[in-house]
Amino acid sequence: QVQLVESGGGLVQPGGSLRLSCAASGSIFAIYAMGWYRQAPGKQRELVATITSGGLTNYADSVKGRFTISRDNAKNTVYLQMNSLKPEDTAVYYCNVVPPVRAISWGKGTLVTVSA
Length: 116
Description:
Layout: E1 4-7, E2 10-12, E3 18-24, E4 33-39, E5 46-51, E6 57-59, E7 67-72, E8 77-82, E9 91-98, E10 110-114
């Protein structure tokens, strides 16, 4: 069973940066597009960044120009570099395949808090 483990979250001031990492236990990266999702308090989970198996990327308008997704297939890891963070970026961030499938459970996520 594939397991996804997110890390790298924390408390950061507005305008700051964080780099999130997501490690997968199985060799799924070569097959699937991967994405970073986030869920803010009281809101639905949303997809913010996607990277295909070939390295093509796509971003939600709310993070375009500030976030960068990347992947290392040899390490079964996907990253999210987040710059110019805003309070509205505060959320629990998750990685998963795009689109999500029943066979792959969500991880616990990593909390990002942007506050002065």
